[in-house]
Design brief:
about 5% helix, elongated, about 425 residues, mainly beta
Length: about 425
């Protein structure tokens, strides 16, 4: 137990250090709208390998926070750490570029409170903002006007969930999350004119930094029924209630050099308070498994983003949905002679409409995923260690109508530790 505790503490410290220092270097133009790019993976790396399906697919050895009702099935203390990354190619009708990023995927801990009740804590991204868009137009026959739009930051979610068994097969759950974070957006203007010496080295920058925080509540349920020795069917649903985030904004106008040095920061400064409405969402899923080594799952997620209101009370998003199907298979969980037969393999497909609508066209998102969970070391009745991986390829948007298409490769890697606490061992 003590070795496991030391491993958990060290891993947590490393993860928090990484999360505090990690820098996103990707360019996600559509994160300019709303609160940024939403994190659809509210579960874990297992869910990511199945295209984020898993609202009704319970797992005793991994923390599925996608539906708090499934936490009940974690009957041992579990700890998960994960890192996510992305390589992305952006394409317009005339240009293309490639970017990448890496960040904290999730840090989770679940503890069984009783035989019917398990609680979990998780820290994960809720939204991510990282974009830089440049447009140039002709001002005069000799002068060009360049506008640059830049943003960074995002919202982080600290999740606290509970799963409780009501009767045989029926579990319910609820969670409360604290959302917090800062989003910085800048709009700069510069003029290039050979007749005005030195002007091309300066730009006027309007900057806004907005701080968000408040609570988000979810409720979930799941029912699992056994039809035969090797046929189980589960159905689950999660409802996320509308949340109103407090928003505090500071704004300023500055004159800078093209290298970022401030020439004059007294042009304009202001601050204001407001609120941002995050609309409710609903997700439902069904899964079929044989109670041993094979699971099929399908989910549907919807959110009425048309109800979103930004800091200025404006509507800038549209309703979205995402459908996903996935499966996992372990050839022989009890194999002794063949390690790869104890590996769990996963795959999935997803398709949906994102909440972004640009030039009267809603941006679509589609792709496929694969993943695996590999046992680490030798398992005992006290401890179980697993390495989780997933890889996904997808595309979002189009190059038509002056839009940008994103082709992206996402990867996740992390470790899950299951440990039986509060058990006195006879031999050490």
């Amino acid at each position: 137990m003590y070795k496991t505790l030391r491993a958990l503490v060290c891993a947590a410290v490393l993860c928090f250090s990484y999360g505090a220092q990690a820098q996103n270097i990707a360019n996600t133009p559509y994160s300019r709208y709303g609160l940024g790019e939403y994190n659809y993976n509210t579960g874990n790396i297992r869910n990511a390998g199945m295209a984020n399906a898993g609202i009704s697919a319970a797992n005793s050895y991994q923390i599925n926070t996608a539906n708090p009702a499934l936490l009940y099935y974690n009957n041992t203390t579990a700890f998960e750490i994960g890192i996510t990354g992305e390589l992305k190619k952006l394409e317009s009708a005339t240009q293309s570029q490639t970017d990448g990023n890496a960040n904290l995927a999730a840090l989770s801990l679940s503890v069984p409170v009783s035989k019917r009740w398990t609680s979990a804590l998780s820290l994960r991204p809720y939204t991510n903002v990282q974009y830089e868009v440049v447009s140039t137009s002709e001002l005069t026959p000799t002068a060009d006007l360049t506008k640059r739009f830049k943003g960074e930051g995002g919202i982080t979610e600290l999740y606290f969930g509970h799963g409780i068994r009501i009767t045989s097969g029926l579990t319910i759950g609820a969670s409360a999350s604290y959302l917090f974070g800062n989003i910085l957006s800048e709009e700069s203007t510069s003029i290039t004119d050979p007749d005005l010496s030195g002007l091309e080295n300066q730009e006027v920058v309007y900057s806004e930094k907005t701080k968000y925080n408040d609570l988000l509540f979810r409720a979930g349920a799941n029912y699992r029924h056994q039809f035969s020795d090797k046929l189980f069917i589960s159905g689950g649903a999660v409802y996320s209630f509308k949340a109103t985030l407090d928003a505090e904004r500071s704004a300023s106008n500055e004159r800078r050099t093209n290298t970022g040095s401030v020439i004059d920061n007294n042009l304009y400064a202001d601050s204001a308070n407001s609120s941002v409405d995050i609309p409710s969402s609903f997700s439902a899923g069904i899964s079929v498994d044989n109670g041993s080594n094979l699971t099929f799952a399908a989910d549907l997620y919807t959110q009425k983003w048309s109800g979103f209101r930004n800091f200025n009370g404006e509507q800038e998003l549209v309703d979205s949905y995402r459908a996903s199907v996935g499966a996992e298979y372990t050839p022989d969980p009890n194999s002794v002679g063949n390690y790869f037969e104890r590996v769990t393999y996963r795959a999935g497909l997803y398709y949906g409409n994102s909440p972004y609508e640009v030039n009267n066209e809603q941006i679509k998102d589609k792709g496929f995923t694969v993943g695996a969970t590999m046992p680490l070391g030798r398992s005992t009745v006290y401890d179980l260690y697993q390495l989780n991986t997933s890889l996904g390829y997808g595309s979002r948007g189009t190059t038509d109508n002056g839009l940008i298409k994103e082709n992206y490769l996402q990867f996740n890697i992390g470790v899950t530790i299951n440990s039986r606490w509060f058990i006195k061992r006879r031999l050490e």
